[in-house]
Amino acid sequence: MAGVSLDTARQHALSVSLATGAYGLSFGALSVAAGLDVWQTLALSLLVFSGGSQFAFVGVLGAGGGPWAAVATSTFVGIRNGFYGVGLAPVLRPMRGWRRAWAAQVTIDESTAVALAQPHDDLEARRTGFWWTGVGVFLAWNAITVVGALLGSRLGDPADWGLDAAAAAAFLALVWPRLASRRAQAVAGASAVVALALTPVAPAGVPVLAAAAVAIVAGWGHPRPEEVPE
Amino acid sequence: MSAYVWTWIAIAAAGLAAWATKLAGHTVPEAWLDNPRVHRVAAFVTVALLSALVAVQTFGSGRGLTVDARVAALAVAAVLLWRRAPFIVVVAVAALVAAGLRALGWG
């Protein structure tokens, strides 16, 4: 059984890495179009390594904003990654030194989602999901960013291939097993409504981050243990 | 300094801030995590953030909302998940539905 669950975690990791990596094409092309060179584009993917933050960074510069506005927006969009580390702590600890530094770097939407989609009593599968997805997306995202930056807009739009829908479907599939209880379903529904309601009025990053408030309300009281998504 | 150099400084600063944010989550004290309330909120937070992300990825369009091929693709994906289809099938069919609808000129 252990072999089967590790295979599942690796399959998730591989498909998510490829689907997410393909978006590196868009990022690379968009970054060059915004006026950054290929090295700067690659440096963003290596150092910031969080798609939403990187798109926000080049978006601000491309729209004529200053470098500090780009840093602030990109950092704000990345705040959710800090929450992910808290959610992953029971899975990944104990960690220290370089291992922790590297785990932090690859703590993103994808690695968190794949890790926590594995059975909660199978720590090995959850760790495998985290590391394989984190490192897999890191390699694919950085390699394909360079391709996108070199080829620019000649590649066409990933949306023509349905990759935007594939990314959303992958996250839906990953959060699905954690929606077993009514309370978890209510949290998911309310979070979606909050994020969509704020999208037209709030700055980038706020709509998704605001959903954390829903989680605080849901977890603050005393839900029965079986209602909490482990 | 030139704009080019400032862009490099900004990239380094954004990278450092991104990493520090991620690391902060991993370094919360063990005692906090032992608190049942923190534990519960942390469990709900990942569900909430990922669900919000799915919603924005499905309906978001810059600063607006829109209904296009992504919605149809996600509806099909939800049915497949309910029918317990494998992960890779769900993701591949969602891409096919969205790409197919767009090739036909919708969304």
Automatic annotation (TrEMBL), chain A:
InterPro entries: Brnchd-chn_aa_trnsp_permease. The chain crosses the membrane at residues 12-36, 130-151, 163-180, 192-220. It is a multi-pass membrane protein. It comes from the Bacteria. PANTHER family: INNER MEMBRANE PROTEIN YGAZ. Belongs to the AzlC family. This is Branched-chain amino acid ABC transporter permease.
Automatic annotation (TrEMBL), chain B:
The chain crosses the membrane at residues 41-59, 71-101. It comes from the Bacteria. InterPro entries: Brnchd-chn_aa_trnsp_AzlD. Keywords: Membrane, Transmembrane, Transmembrane helix. Pfam families: AzlD. This is AzlD domain-containing protein. It comes from Demequina sediminis. The lineage of its organism: Bacteria, Bacillati, Actinomycetota, Actinomycetes, Micrococcales.
